[in-house]
Amino acid sequence: MTRPSYIFTSESVSEGHPDKVADRISDTVVDAFLAADPYSRVACETLVTTQRIVIAGEVRGPGEVIDGLEDQIRAAIKDIGYEQHGFHWATADYACHLHAQSADIAMGVDAAGNKDEGAGDQGIMFGYATNETPELMPATLQYSQNILSVLAKARKSGEQKGLEPDAKSQVTLQYENGRPVRATSIVLSTQHKEGLSPADVHEIVKPYILKVLPEGFIDAATEWHVNPTGNFVIGGPDGDCGLTGRKIIVDTYGGAAPHGGGAFSGKDPTKVDRSAAYMCRYLAKNVVAAGLADKCTIQIGFAIGVSKPLSFYVDLVNGNVDPAKLEKVLPELVNGCTPRAIREHLKLNRPIYARTSAYGHFGRTPEADGGFSWEQTDLADELKRLA
After folding, report:
1. pLDDT, tens digit, for every residue of 67-123?
2. Beta strands at 83-84 and 87-88: parallel, antiparallel or unpaired
3. Which regions of the chain does DSSP assign to beta strands (E)?
4. In whole angstroms, how far apart are CA 219 and each of 129, 213, 214, 309?
5. For residue 6, with 0-12 CB atoms within 10 Å meaning exposed, 13-18 middle and 19 or more buried, which class applies?
6. Contact, 287 vs 131, CB < 8 A?
7. Kindly report the CA angle at 13 between 209 and 29, in degrees rounded to 5?
């Protein structure tokens, strides 16, 4: 039984956090290959540090894509906003160490003869949804993401000229009867221009934070920690090395649900670490959107080279349908939840991934070109009928 009253915390990081810069670069590589050939294979890792960008990994796709990657990567860093002495989009050293995908891995994943496309790796993937926010996401994480998103828009529009790209947020909420009722603390650390004090930064960011959280959530007892260490001028890859895939809890559910351990960024959709996690979220969200439970957790297990899932598990909180029934019905709605069925149902073989690299892969709005297709609730009506 879920505890009715408790305090819970989630954090987020901005697009300028060094690990998120690395994620953005890796997903820029994925998009570049998928734009050239929707069936490209990509497994790209990125390292960023002081005035240095290094990409490495395995790819299968048009060779000429690699020649144009540097310009696209520099454009991505420029879009984030890095024009600093310690990390500048135009002058940072760039090194590319991409090479051909392993033939052994390709053999296991490719469809051939009577063999369907297999999973790109073994592993477990989770999806989660909760009705505590309109986005059907944990409130602590959703508000943490939204705070950084609105601050980034203010920075990039020029509305707030004192802010720089690197930032972290953290929201702690008090829950009563399983529902969030107030914020016990707000933590915000943001890189800023030289000369601003923590009090100056507090004055800049507080109005944006107040707009993000529901009315009444922040009260006189809420603790504020804005740039609690003091100065935060040196940041981003100059202040800390960044690597792809180090913010997997920020990317998913903020610690409110299990995680299989696999990162998303830098991977094409044959990698079930990414595509199956998207499918689990899609199905869990539709279960909650259909009103079949207050919370839903779904797990899928795969073996490398094998198309049929090894397991499909559903767990509900305050559910009004037998989870075992959903374990049978949900995979049938997606043609067995094989790697191919997942890719085709969500139309994942498109260059839609760079936009996922910051502010969460989930809790976003489905877009006209197919971005965030896993956030649709188009199965909800059918699930209501089946229930």
Report:
1. 999 999 999 999 999 999 999 999 999 999 999 877 666 556 666 555 578 887 899
2. antiparallel
3. 6-13, 41-49, 52-60, 83-84, 87-88, 93-100, 123-130, 163-176, 179-192, 223-226, 242-243, 295-302, 311-317
4. 28, 11, 11, 48
5. exposed
6. no
7. 135
